[in-house]
Amino acid sequence: MAKYKEQLQAMGFGYDDVTSVAYRKINDIAFIVRVNPASKEYNVTAACRPHYDNSVGSLRTVLNQFASQRRNILKTAFFDGKQIHICYQITFDILQGVNDAVNFIMYCVNQFECVPCCSKCGKFDVVDVYSVENSVSALCAECYGTLQSKITEDIVRESATRTNYPMGILGAILGSLAGAVVWLLFSLMGFIGYIAGFISGFGGIMGYKWLGKKISTGGIVISIIISFVFLFLAMYLAVGIDLYNQFKAEGLVELYGLTFKDALDFIPDAVQLDSEYAGTLVYNNIFGVITFILSVVICAAGLKSESKVKNRSMKLT
Ligand SMILES: [Zn+2]
Q: Which of 68, 176, 215, 267 would bridge with 219, disulfide CB 3.0–4.6 Å?
């Protein structure tokens, strides 16, 4: 993404790092460029439409011609009633494509007397590019005002919401419990339950957020501790069940009257006495721990990036 940012900035575009969107106004027309490496395309949009409705048909025809001339590099070019969209296949260097799209749109603007219009309400007006939470769009001042007041309401409502800690902890326990149960079930069937690590980490944090209404960094840490304790207990129980079954198979249960509790108590000794057995235990459990760590990292990173765009609203152009 960094190279695209540099290329777009070299063309005079502003770049919003939070949403990875480039923006620029040329002769009052608001341009937005979105690069999407995942779908291997980049979009250039311009918020404008012909001043006279009878030019719309010709604009669409010209866009179709433009698209068919560049079939090998272009995905689509169309007018949605409020914006002109030109979508290219991504290349190492997007400068040429963006230039091509901007020049062609400016040609259309002159040819079909296009005037800036809001991409939300469609009204002819002064249009600027705004970032509202995680979406960037070309809006009139009125539409932005409406969105902004909604965000202000959200902020007020949210600050009035207090974290319900007991319920949060209950949520973390329930989420973790799900992971623990899956781990036990899989190990009883003789499989390694990689997925249980994911469920534990994800379930713990999301359970806390769900029932506690809000989650802070402290809440995330508490959830991680709770879910790890549950996962560890499940792993320990699974090993205990395994040992008890071994005792049974060897006839030790009948001979010495060994119980399931004896099997659990024997685990630390078994690990210390038999290094091979300890190795097997590490092998059987390490994947659950790895997927657990992965899930809490992904989850915490997701919550952090969500909080970055949450309640964000600003004028970009
Ligand atoms: Zn509007």
A: 215
